[in-house]
């Protein structure tokens, strides 16, 4: 009886020794540690200053041409005016234009500004996202040198998109606060369109008042 008791104690101690030097980390905590390794803000800042912001000025197409073309036939407008990551992905468009602010909607956190466009055939309006909540990742997706394959996982890709959008919004936030209905403006921004039923929301990267 004593012999069995001693053996039992010895076995318990033997099993406890290897566990004493181990740290048990919950799966969720371990995942958080991996994600913490990606500096989305730093990545976005480097991309933006080196070539991201300049890309919009270099590639922007007249919004008065792009919007009617999308409405007429996205399958034609996409290759002509836009780009996309691959078959089945949304089309990304970089557009620029001028016009008069006719609506400024800030009741929702996903605020918008409606612009009556200059030089359009007939009456044509564009809707700009002014936040603070911005829908989608149009800014990220308009940059052909930002690719999903460059990231470890979907979370990093999404975080990069949020950080790039935040930089774009930061650059136009002063104008957003100042602008009011009746002001004349110039803008450059990005749109992401999967099909013609999507709202044509432009996320501005340049937004400035040009007249009263």
From TrEMBL:
<dbReference type="InterPro" id="IPR036215">
    <property type="entry name" value="TM0957-like_sf"/>
</dbReference>
<dbReference type="InterPro" id="IPR014582">
    <property type="entry name" value="UCP033535_lipo"/>
</dbReference>
<protein>
    <submittedName>
        <fullName>DUF2291 domain-containing protein</fullName>
    </submittedName>
</protein>
<dbReference type="Pfam" id="PF10054">
    <property type="entry name" value="DUF2291"/>
</dbReference>
């Amino acid at each position: 009886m004593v012999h069995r008791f001693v053996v039992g104690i010895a076995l318990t101690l033997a099993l406890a020794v290897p566990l004493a030097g181990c740290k048990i980390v919950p799966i969720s905590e371990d995942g958080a540690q991996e994600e913490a390794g990606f500096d989305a803000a730093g990545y976005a800042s480097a991309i933006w200053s080196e070539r991201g912001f300049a890309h919009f000025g270099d590639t922007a197409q007249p919004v008065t041409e792009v919007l009617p073309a999308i409405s007429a036939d996205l399958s034609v407008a996409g290759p002509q005016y836009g780009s996309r990551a691959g078959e089945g992905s949304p089309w990304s468009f970089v557009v620029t234009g001028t016009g008069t602010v006719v609506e400024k909607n800030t009741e929702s956190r996903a605020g918008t500004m409606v612009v009556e466009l200059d030089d359009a055939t007939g009456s044509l309006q564009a809707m700009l996202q002014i936040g603070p909540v911005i829908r989608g990742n149009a800014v990220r997706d308009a940059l052909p040198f930002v690719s999903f394959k460059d990231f470890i996982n979907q979370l990093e890709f999404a975080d990069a998109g949020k950080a790039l959008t935040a930089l774009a919004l930061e650059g136009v936030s002063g104008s957003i606060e100042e602008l009011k209905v009746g002001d004349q403006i110039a803008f450059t921004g990005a749109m992401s369109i999967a099909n013609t039923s999507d709202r044509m929301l432009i996320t501005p990267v340049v937004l400035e008042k040009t007249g009263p």
